[in-house]
Hints:
By secondary structure, the protein is α+β, with helices and mostly antiparallel strands. The protein has 2 domains: 10-241, ECO RV Endonuclease, Chain A (3-Layer(aba) Sandwich), CATH 3.40.600.10; 259-475, ECO RV Endonuclease, Chain A (3-Layer(aba) Sandwich).
Amino acid sequence: MPNFYDKTDPVSIEGYAKKMIGKTFREIWEENEMSSSGLLKEKTTTDGYMQSHTNKHYKGGMGNLVEECYFKYKSNNDSDPDFKEAGVELKVTPYKKIGKKQELRAKERLIITMIDYYNLVKEPSFWESHVWKKAQLILLVWYLYEKGKENIDFHVDLVKLFTPPEEDRKIMEADYNKIVAKVRAGKAHELSEGDTLYLGAATKGATSADRRGQPYSDIEAKQRAFSFKNSYMTYVLNTYFVPDVTTYEPIVHGEVDDFEGYVVKKINAYRGKSVTELCQIFDIDISKKKPKNLESMLAFRMLGIKGNQAEEFVKANIVVKSIRIKENGTIKESMSFPTFRFKELVRQTWDDCDFGNYLRDTRFLFVIYRFDDKRRLILRGCQFWNIPYEDLECEVRKVWERTKQVLVEGLQFWKDDKGRYHNNFPKMADNRVSHVRPHGRDQKDTDELPDGRLYPKQCFWLNNSYILEQIKDELK
């Protein structure tokens, strides 16, 4: 191997990698072609190497190109870190800029290593696991994703060694243990990224039909890989690679063994308090105008957060939802999600659709309030929740697929004599879990249907009766 860097020294590897900053992947490939030491010089010119490695459907293309054309070693699927002697794993990953403020976000989760269900249950602990062996020291190479450009013309922007900080490792250990426990229970087929906070079990296969065996069940499970979740990678990007872009307030100062238990305990300390009393405790003036998100705001105050961005929630993609239970024990509001675009939805598949992915990836913190007989809104407590596998893959899937079918076949709609729209999208009465309808009463905001007609934008919802089912009895 050419003596460009010391393969036993992480700092030397990082220093050499930083020389990629500002270069496009095309330039990295071309420099390898012109180099007399080019490991793949003959192969690249004869086998269409660049074309195959930059195909947008080849997920590992940019990483393999960096391994072979820049670091001059043959890409492989070895279980050891890429730089074995230094204990360094190389990961090449995209980020993007969003909105007018050009906020920086990771484009995707970071795949660490494939999960072998049979070997996973034999590992003695997280600290001795295959995933921690790969994840404890990562050379992260970030490149800017720009829509419309070929992969080969993206340029490397940020390079740095990264080790998860101590407080994150404790949560990752808990995530790992949750995944192992589910596999040991014969439920690998029910794994979901919403089960965990930072370390996820991401689906990984050429198609959704790819399955593999699991040790304690005859049901084959989807192929999955350990990954750092997209939300966690966005936090890493903004905190460790582009400092001061944004800041978040931590809930925990120091270490706790059970993060979710700690959060529940902090909020439940205020059980029995009315919203009015909580506003007094946290000095929130509601005499002139009541904030729309008051109950969620109070949840953050109970956790010691002055704003509405808790560090751990940002990293784990935890969404706070306040739920009001009426005096008679029912819930008035269903849970809404962002509007969808008609033409985009018909181009998607269930396994990679926006709504399905949101529910798969998101963990919720339900903060529950209930009206008493004096119409005071009283805090009952909180619970963490993510949608159960069967409810998502059966009931929600039916609603999503029916919605797509309606759009493909041509939406049927009409107006009544009061000017209200009616349509044949799935209704609340059609499904135990989910339905489709507009958000709010304003029906002037329209979108173009696949057949060119305009129609008010629509949302997916989780039924109010379904949400009530999910709340623990002691909180109702």
